[in-house]
Each structure stands twice: as structure tokens, then as C-alpha cells.
Design a protein that fits this description.
Its EC number is 3.2.1.21. There is one protein chain. The chain has 482 residues and is of the alpha/beta class. The protein contains 15 helices and 13 strands. It is globular and about 60 Å long. 55% of the residues are buried.
Length: 482
């Protein structure tokens, strides 16, 4: 459980993980469910975005995705067969509350009730994420996350789902990667809804923070006290190109925009003053009303950290357009409002198919940072994984030794952080299976289970078998292909 009063007992073996450590996998609704027009579901911003020409690779959409909506029982059985003991999934807001307002559609809730029951029957702990980017389109039409009302609507939605599932689900996450929602969605425009307004992106960030706080209150009002509430942040490990004052100042700007804008109010009840100063020419922050920071600063039961690769930055001339080497897609518009004089550099080392450098030291650094930022708060790695160009071999198996090495390195970094005193209680690899990878369509495969997109057949890759062995033994097997 994500409950501080029930801490994980440390392992005595320096190679083993704690006995109660959660070994899980993660997915999100729009990326896997499909069935976008069934059971009363209405379009989300990602339905609209993916159906807009030029927005996604090959014009691909999540209309079918990998059809988890109809195949969830088989998918849960596969998780159990692999040996996973936890599964993090997201609820589709427009499947449960199609307009983002008013009563729930019970058939939508029933799908998640059935999924939770199936998981529990197989001994797998469900972890529910309320928001993984699929805002109901009607709320975006009314202004989306830059509008305060969206945060109020989120609290109502949280209450609906909490009432429906809170008796059986103990682990709750309000938002997944609000940075992506705010800055990729409203500043660079490479994610839904595809807007490019720096001021709107900062308003969106504040109202996502407010949604987290109000949603946390709403969940706790309707759920048993044993349940826990967390948030998943894709906090950035930002490193300077050089130790010069200019490059260190560049690190400060990006750290504020990547991390402080969310963990500042969530963990400390305030926005960093340096963030307010950096963005003063873009916004006056007058939308931060009296009481907002108190509402956002709710006590958390745990913190989820998503990590893929570190960032390397330096001071430079103001950005003039064109792709930026920040790992968040090519756009003429920056996702870093107020930081146009910061340059991103490719970090050295091997890379995944996303072009992201493989660096487990960044995960260790991130964990230890939040041990300092939030002492005593349990931590979970709620996403970590790699995309590779996987294909079945002549034997019909999918051999992915590079992913095994990636997982081994990052899990070893987690184990080292635990040895160094961090209270890390679980790891959710991204992702359980290949799926719709947002603007990349079906071109990037993050899954440890291979999906044939023509037949939708599932085949566990070697990495799934390796990870399952780690989950069953609580130790890291050797990295040779399974």
C-alpha cells in the first residue's frame, strides 16, 4: 500500500529488494483501451488531436489502440502469469463523465469495476490514475486547463471515481505528468490540445495544481482512510553543460519550469520566486487566488516519479525557432516559457529509439533529490522504460536484450537509492505492452509485451520474462536474453 504507516521492511540482502516492494507495470487509457465510441464515451482532446491531419505520425489514432477494453481479462491473466503484483492504469474521464460535467455514465464505471475485480482476483494491486491527459473535449471547448472551472470539474470527477472504486482500490494518483499537459499541450503544441500560447500554459499549470489539490480533498472525503493519494511527476534531472554562472542560471530556469512549478506548491505551498520572476513578462500570475496554495498543498501519502533521461542545458542566444534538443518533439514553439535563452544539448551515451540517452544515474539522483525535498514521504517509480524497434525473430519470439539491460540498470539505481536511505516502495515499468505512443502513433514500442497491430495478438518479449523473474524473486537476474 502507499501508506506511510505501513513502511516497506528493508531487505537485509544488499542485492535484494525489500520484501513488500511492488513490481508493477503501467498503462494509460487512451493508449490502450480503444472502444472510443462505446458505452457513452465522447471525444477527449486526444481523439480530436489525433484526428487532425498532421498532428500524429501517419495520422494514427487511438480509436482501436490495442483493444484493452475488450481484452482486459486476457491482459490481466498475462500480468499474473508474468508474476506482476501491481498494475497502474488510468481512468478515461470521457468514458466516465462524457461532458466533464454532471452524473457518471454507469456503463463506463462498470468497465473499471470489472477491471479492478479481475486484478484483485489475480492477486494484483490496482493503482488508479485519474488523469492521464484525456480531457473531455467539451471542457477544452470551454477553455480547457487554462480555465479555473476545469479544476473544479476535475474535483467532481475525482469524487465520482473515488465513490465507485474506493472500496477496492487503495492506491490513487491524481495527475500523471502535469508538465506535459500544461507545456506540451498549451505551449509547444506537440500534445493535445495543440495550442501554442505561453501564457495559457502557465495558467494551465496552476489549474492542474489546483485540480490536484481539490481532487485530493474530494477523494479523501469519499474513500476509506486506509487509502492513499499521490501524484506522478515527470520531474526533470537538469544538469549544466559547464559550471559557469550563466549555465547554472540556465539550470535554475529549467528546474523551475520542469519541477518547481509543480512540486513547489504541492510539497511546499508556494511557487519558486525565481519562477515568478522569470515568467513575469509572460503572465502576472493574478489567477492564483487567495486560498489556492492552501488547497494545492494537501498532505500526500506518497509521491510518484516518472523518469526516462536527464537534460543537459546551457545559456545561449534566444531561441529563433526550429526543433529543440529537449526530447519533447520538434516544434517552432518552445515548451519552456520564459527560458528562450536556454539551450538543450544531447547528453552523451547510448540512446533509445526515442533518441533519449540511457543514464540510470539520473534516476538515482532524482530519487535522492525527493528524499531531500519531501523527507519521510514514500516514493514510487511510476514510469520508467525504453522504446526499441522490436520485431519477432524467426523463432516467433521477441528478443529485446537492450531493454533488459535498460531495466537492469535503472532497477539497480533504485536499489542503490534504497541502500542510501530512500524509501522507495515500488516500480512500475512503462509500459506493459506496445501501444499508441501519442504524437508518435504506433511507431515507438515501449512495451515489454509485443503487440501485433494487425491481429492485436500479444507476445511477451524477453524483457517481460526477465522482469517477471525479478518480480518473483525480488532480485535482478543477469542481463542475458531470456
Amino acid at each position: 500500500m502507499l501508506v506511510p504507516s505501513n513502511p516497506v521492511t528493508p531487505a537485509t540482502n544488499p542485492v535484494a529488494f525489500p520484501p513488500a516492494f511492488l513490481w508493477g507495470a503501467a498503462t494509460s487509457a487512451y493508449q490502450i483501451e480503444g472502444a472510443v465510441r462505446e458505452g457513452g464515451r465522447t471525444p477527449s482532446i486526444w481523439d480530436t488531436f489525433s484526428h487532425t491531419p498532421g498532428r500524429t505520425a501517419g495520422g494514427e489514432t487511438g480509436d482501436i489502440a490495442v483493444d484493452h477494453y475488450h481484452r482486459y481479462r486476457d491482459d490481466v491473466a498475462l500480468m499474473a502469469e508474468l508474476g506482476l503484483n501491481a498494475y497502474r492504469f488510468s481512468v478515461s474521464w470521457p468514458r466516465v463523465q462524457p461532458t466533464g460535467r454532471g452524473p457518471a455514465v454507469q456503463v463506463g464505471l462498470d468497465f473499471y469495476r470489472r477491471l479492478v475485480d479481475e486484478l484483485l482476483e489475480h492477486g494484483i494491486k490496482p493503482a488508479v490514475t485519474l488523469y492521464h491527459w484525456d480531457l473531455p473535449q467539451e471542457l477544452e471547448d470551454a477553455g480547457g486547463w487554462p480555465e479555473r472551472d476545469t479544476a473544479l470539474r476535475f474535483a467532481e470527477y475525482a469524487q465520482i471515481v473515488g465513490e465507485a472504486l474506493g472500496d477496492r482500490v487503495e492506491q490513487w494518483i491524481t495527475l500523471n505528468e502535469p508538465w506535459c499537459s500544461a507545456f506540451l499541450g498549451y505551449a509547444s503544441g506537440v500534445h493535445a490540445p495543440g495550442r501554442t500560447d505561453p501564457a495559457a500554459s502557465l495558467r494551465a499549470a496552476h489549474h492542474l495544481n489546483l485540480a490536484h489539490g481539490l481532487g485530493t480533498q474530494a477523494l479523501r472525503a469519499v474513500m476509506p482512510t486506509r487509502n492513499s493519494v499521490a501524484v506522478s511527476l515527470n520531474s526533470c534531472v537538469v544538469r549544466p553543460l559547464s559550471p559557469t554562472p550563466e549555465d547554472l542560471a540556465a539550470v535554475r530556469r529549467i528546474d523551475d519550469l520542469a519541477n518547481g512549478v509543480f512540486h513547489g506548491p504541492m510539497l511546499h505551498g508556494t511557487y519558486p520566486q525565481t519562477l515568478l520572476t522569470t515568467t513575469a513578462k509572460i503572465t502576472d500570475w493574478s489567477y492564483v487566488l487567495d486560498g489556492d496554495l492552501r488547497a494545492i498543498h494537501q498532505p500526500l501519502d506518497a509521491l510518484g516519479l516518472n523518469y526516462y533521461t536527464p537534460s543537459l542545458v546551457s545559456a545561449t542566444e534566444p531561441h529563433r525557432g526550429g526543433p529543440r534538443a529537449d526530447g519533447h518533439g520538434a516544434s517552432d514553439h518552445s515548451p519552456w516559457p520564459g527560458a528562450d535563452d536556454v539551450a538543450f544539448h544531447q547528453t552523451p551515451g547510448d540512446r533509445t529509439e526515442m533518441g533519449w540517452t540511457i543514464d540510470p544515474t539520473g534516476l538515482h539522483d532524482l530519487i535522492m533529490r525527493y528524499r531531500r525535498e519531501a523527507p519521510g514521504l514514500p516514493l514510487y517509480i511510476t514510469e520508467n522504460g525504453a522504446a526499441y524497434d522490436d520485431e519477432p525473430g524467426d523463432d516467433g519470439r521477441v528478443h529485446d536484450p537492450a531493454r533488459i539491460a535498460y531495466l537492469h540498470g535503472h532497477l539497480a539505481a533504485v536499489r542503490r537509492a534504497i541502500t542510501d536511505g530512500a524509501d522507495v516502495r515500488g516500480y512500475f515499468l512503462w509500459s506493459l505492452m506496445d501501444n499508441f505512443e501519442w504524437a508518435y502513433g504506433y511507431d515507438k514500442r515501449f512495451g515489454t509485451v509485443y503487440v501485433d497491430y494487425a491481429t492485436l495478438d500479444r507476445t511477451p518479449k524477453s524483457s517481460a520474462l526477465w522482469y517477471g523473474r525479478a518480480a518473483r524473486t525480488g532480485t535482478l537476474p543477469e542481463t542475458e536474453d531470456v
